TrEMBL record:
It comes from Candidatus Thiodictyon syntrophicum. This is Transposase. Keywords: Plasmid. It comes from the Bacteria. Pfam families: TnpB_IS66.
Amino acid sequence: MIAFDSHTQVYLALGPTDMRKSIDGLAVLVTEVLAADPFSSHLFVFCNRARDKVKLLFWHNNGFWLWYRRLERQRFWWPSESTGGAITLSVRELGWLLEGLDPRRVEAHRRTDFSLL
């Protein structure tokens, strides 16, 4: 099992992506469109125009992982900007997105810190 640490960033590619692209094609998009390093051990997420398919690209140790998810009846939340580029999410927010939630609208309990006097 692959574990992501707290330093792992998730980059959502804005706008639709051609889902015929595989590892090499998506790595080129990461470099040229997102201006990022595909070997950086960050997650890069791409979505199609209909918003029912996503692909995640991730470099781990000595090779790429490529995950693909297709929804049968629903649609993923996806930023409406089509200008290219990316927005960043946390790994936790990616989990929300994959579960069908809008990561910008999910609100958690506020953090409470107690200090000893």
